[in-house]
């Protein structure tokens, strides 16, 4: 008599769920999202990478970021592609064949991204790309408005938060690791300014979806946050 094959944890979670993670800058959404996606056998996409990549290109081309039409036309002109990284989990953003790498993590790009992210045409264009990437499920997607706008009917919605001071320290460590210049005071001030910009934005501002599961990560490691999310999803650790 043949034994009934037991499904592995990874096979069980090929249900093609859509998992949305929102939260402010520097809270660890990308680190946690990648970890959760890897455990579930899903793909992961950091939507902020799209806005950063566009901001970088606009700055390189000398565009006035306040000129919404010019930035929107640039976004439309670019050839967008999303390809799996070597780990097979992360979907990397490519614009005109160039991968979005460490150059989009500079403070110059960081402090300018909020302006680009507030551009209505850009948000609509990138939202369409994001929905296309996640429509079949099997994805963990992080950003500012994933649960509230991009996928309001996501299977699981998380809102990850942490104090501005802790987020600044994390961002400082990240930049140092990448070999980029980092000033903790400036980073702290920039994070608080970005929070205000994101929350005051007229189109799809940063806010917590009513049915989101809120996790304050100030006193938690990224591993602990990922474990909490996996438990809520129903994944046995």
Profile the largest sheet.
5 strands, parallel
General form: globular
What's the number of structural domains?
Answer: 1
What is the mean predicted local confidence, pLDDT?
A: 90
Top-tier CATH class: Alpha Beta
Q: What do we call the CATH topology? A: Rossmann fold
* Share in helix: 40-55%
For the record, give the distance between the C-alpha atoms at the N and C termini, rounded to a whole number: 31 Å
**The CATH superfamily title:** P-loop containing nucleotide triphosphate hydrolases
Major β-sheet strand ordering: 2-6-1-7-8
Order of helices and strands: HEHEHHEEEHHEHEHHEH
Task: Determine Rg (CA atoms, Å).
Answer: 18 Å
Q: Could you characterize what this model shows?
A:
With 237 residues, the protein is of the alpha/beta class. The chain has a single domain (16-229), classed as P-loop containing nucleotide triphosphate hydrolases (Rossmann fold). 48% of the residues lie in helices and 15% in strands. It contains ten helices and eight strands. It has helices at 9-12, 29-40, 48-60, 68-77, 107-117, 120-134, 146-150, 164-177, 184-200, 222-233, and strands at residues 18-22, 43-46, 80-84, 91-95, 98-99, 139-143, 156-161, 213-216. It has a five-stranded parallel beta sheet with strand order 2-6-1-7-8. A three-stranded antiparallel beta sheet has the order 3-4-5, covered by helices on one side. Helix 3 crosses helix 5. The longest helix is centred in the C-terminal third of the chain and has 17 residues, at 184-200. It is globular. The model is unreliable at 1-8 (pLDDT under 50).
């Amino acid at each position: 008599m043949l034994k009934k094959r037991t499904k592995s944890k990874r096979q069980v979670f090929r249900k093609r769920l859509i998992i949305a993670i929102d939260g402010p800058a520097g809270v660890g959404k990308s680190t946690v999202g990648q970890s959760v996606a890897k455990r579930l056998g899903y793909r992961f996409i950091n939507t902020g990478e799209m806005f950063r990549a566009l901001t970088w290109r606009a700055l390189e081309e000398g565009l006035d970021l306040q000129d919404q039409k010019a930035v929107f036309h640039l976004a439309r002109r670019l050839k967008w592609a999303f390809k799996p990284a070597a780990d097979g989990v992360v979907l990397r953003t490519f614009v005109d064949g160039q991968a979005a790498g460490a150059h989009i993590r500079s403070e110059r790009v960081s402090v300018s991204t909020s302006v680009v992210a507030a551009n209505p045409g850009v948000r609509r264009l990138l939202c369409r790309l994001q929905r296309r990437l996640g429509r079949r499920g099997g994805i963990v997607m992080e950003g500012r408005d994933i649960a509230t706008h991009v996928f309001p009917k996501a299977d699981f919605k998380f809102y990850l938060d942490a104090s501005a001071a802790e987020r600044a320290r994390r961002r400082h460590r990240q930049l140092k690791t990448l070999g980029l210049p980092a000033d903790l005071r400036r980073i702290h001030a920039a994070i608080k300014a970005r929070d205000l910009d994101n929350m005051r934005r007229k189109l799809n501002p940063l806010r917590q979806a009513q049915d989101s599961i809120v996790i304050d990560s100030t006193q938690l490691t990224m591993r602990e946050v990922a474990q909490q999310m996996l438990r809520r999803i129903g994944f046995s650790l």
